[in-house]
User: Which sequence fits this backbone?
């Protein structure tokens, strides 16, 4: 199934990357996505294969084994993967956007050589642990502790909803020392790192989401990222990049729902004609297509500004807010157009509808995105 509307003006590199991602998604992800969803199966082997193709180091600098791509190209590739299965896309998105960005911006040369290189080459999968059972939207209230131990650190506490937390090789874990919130590189084989069992979720069932118990996890000094007490800002910067990934994940979900709906409305006949000949259906499809296109265009516009070096905190929130609400709306319309079939697990729009919901929740709820946008409108408070 093809993209509803090809984004304009793709460069040759962008076209190649999109083709590679689309072909991979068509042959190695989409045929299995419904089964992974039913079994809540995390396909690490597929992530590893994507890693070997460079998809775990899309924006990481070439000197550290990455592809050094611009943000728009990264988003184009991610949309293709998300259209096939948003569960696979979120693993890539978290890895590429949050721990990778944090390491690129704040890692020492030693940390980049030791961790970022393996991540960018696809040898190491990374995740991010910020939220806690009592610290979600109010991320700065996190309570996990980081206590100095000689030269090193001891981490204790509980993290919630950590994507990749039970399957990653390393996690970027946020914990509080006496000087404030810090970011730590935590190898998942460190003694005391205990992932819970995978959460039983409404959607994105094939992604790995776990609670983490940190039971006196001892880390050498060089596992602290950047400066002690500065970690909250690093995490927020990571989320600026992450939210663009979630925006195009939502675009991918919505686009696929639109494509299914367009095909179905051409085939399905009621009252003696195909559904597509009813104006009420045409209007619905037109609105769905318009929102998909607008959501993608906004995400790409923000990515272009990001690549120019502009501060895009507010705009990344706009892109995520708009795209996630578009995805929820578009998938709801798709289920409605499919009617009784739309409510059945045998048809693909039901999964897309479930997968869309979390894009309005994670990496900051729609309400948090609105707060960030509104704050951006009054930058002096
Ligand atoms: N980039 C860099 N620094 C940032 C930043 C950003 N995007 N956003 C905030 N900061 C810095 C601020 O500059 C401030 O620094 P100083 O203390 O040096 O002044 C500090 O971080 C605190 O910022 P702020 O006062 O805005 O923090 P708040 O507690 O008011 O809340 C929100 C910030 C609500 C935006 C934040 O908690 C948030 O994004 N919550 C949602 C969490 C989330 O997305 N969770 C998903 C987890 S991953 S599934």
Assistant:
């Amino acid at each position: 199934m093809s993209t509803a509307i090809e984004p304009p003006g793709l460069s040759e590199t962008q076209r190649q990357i999109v083709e590679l991602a689309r072909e991979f998604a068509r042959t190695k992800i989409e045929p299995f996505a419904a089964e992974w969803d039913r079994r809540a199966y995390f396909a690490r082997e597929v992530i590893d294969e994507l890693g070997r193709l460079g998809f775990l180091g899309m924006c990481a600098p070439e000197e550290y084994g990455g592809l050094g791509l611009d943000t728009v190209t990264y988003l184009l590739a991610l949309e293709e993967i998300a259209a096939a299965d948003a569960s696979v896309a979120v693993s890539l998105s978290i890895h590429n956007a949050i721990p990778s960005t944090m390491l690129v911006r704040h890692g020492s040369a030693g940390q980049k050589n030791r961790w970022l290189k393996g991540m960018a080459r696809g040898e190491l999968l990374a995740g991010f642990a910020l939220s806690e059972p009592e610290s979600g939207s109010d991320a700065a209230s996190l309570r996990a502790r980081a206590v100095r131990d000689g030269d090193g650190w001891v981490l204790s506490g509980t993290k919630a909803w950590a994507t990749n937390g039970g399957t990653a090789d390393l996690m970027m874990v946020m914990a509080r020392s006496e000087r404030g919130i810090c970011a730590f590189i935590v190898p998942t084989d460190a003694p005391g790192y205990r992932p819970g069992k995978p959460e039983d979720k409404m959607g994105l069932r094939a992604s790995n989401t776990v609670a983490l118990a940190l039971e006196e996890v001892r880390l050498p000094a060089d596992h602290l990222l950047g400066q002690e007490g500065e970690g909250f800002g690093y995490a927020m910067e990571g989320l600026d990049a992450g939210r663009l990934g979630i925006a195009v994940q939502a675009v991918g979900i919505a686009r696929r729902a639109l494509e299914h709906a367009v095909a179905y409305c051409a085939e399905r006949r009621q009252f003696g004609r195909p559904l597509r000949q009813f104006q009420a259906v045409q209007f619905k499809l037109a609105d769905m297509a318009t929102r998909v296109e607008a959501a993608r265009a906004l995400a790409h516009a923000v990515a272009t500004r990001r690549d120019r070096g502009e501060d895009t905190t507010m705009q990344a929130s706009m892109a995520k807010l708009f795209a996630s609400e578009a995805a929820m709306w578009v998938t709801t319309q798709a289920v409605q157009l499919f009617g009784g079939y739309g409510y059945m697990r045998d048809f693909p729009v039901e999964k897309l509808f479930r997968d869309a919901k979390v894009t309005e929740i994670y990496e900051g709820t729609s309400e948090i995105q609105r707060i960030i946008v509104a704050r951006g409108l009054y930058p002096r408070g």
About this structure: The CA atoms of residues 82 and 252 lie 5 Å apart.
